[in-house]
Amino acid sequence: MTIETIRSVAHSYEAQADIRYYLTSCDDAPEVLIQAVHRHWAIENSLHGVLDVTFREDDARSRDKVATRSFALLRKMALNIVRKDKSNQFSLRGRRQNAGWNNDYMAHLLFECAKKPMSAENSFNA
After folding, report:
1. Would you list the domain boundaries of the chain?
2. CB burial of residue 25 (10 Å; 0-12, 13-18, 19+)
3. What tens-digit pLDDT sequence spans the chain (126 residues)?
4. DSSP secondary structure letter of residue 87
5. Helix/strand/coil for 65
6. How far apart are alpha carbons 75 and 122 in whole angstroms?
7. Cα 53 to chain center, whole Å?
8. Is the pTM of this model over 0.85?
9. What element of type H or E holds 62?
């Protein structure tokens, strides 16, 4: 399957066209396959991309399977807590760094923001 994607680059007026190739044994209609590709990239952009920018997840060097899974779960929990805080305009990465530098802010995140229920549009099921 071949898909041509056209996207605009942030802070630029140019559009970029790319051709991506996918191998599949699925016999579904092209519309169904395109939806599956869109869902895949939506998850990649909304969760994995955010985790990489916020926690530099791609740079993690843990080799132990249990440790890798444990740290991935901890990063997702931390991301959900940091997302709940609307008290400042810092980026998610900035809020995470601020929590590391400021114990009062860390306490605010853990004891006030962690109690708030997560809205459906901000939660991840990964």
Report:
1. 28-126
2. exposed
3. 777 777 777 777 788 888 888 788 888 888 888 888 888 878 777 777 788 777 877 777 778 888 888 888 888 888 888 888 888 888 888 888 888 899 998 899 888 877 766 655 555 444
4. S
5. helix
6. 15
7. 8
8. no
9. none
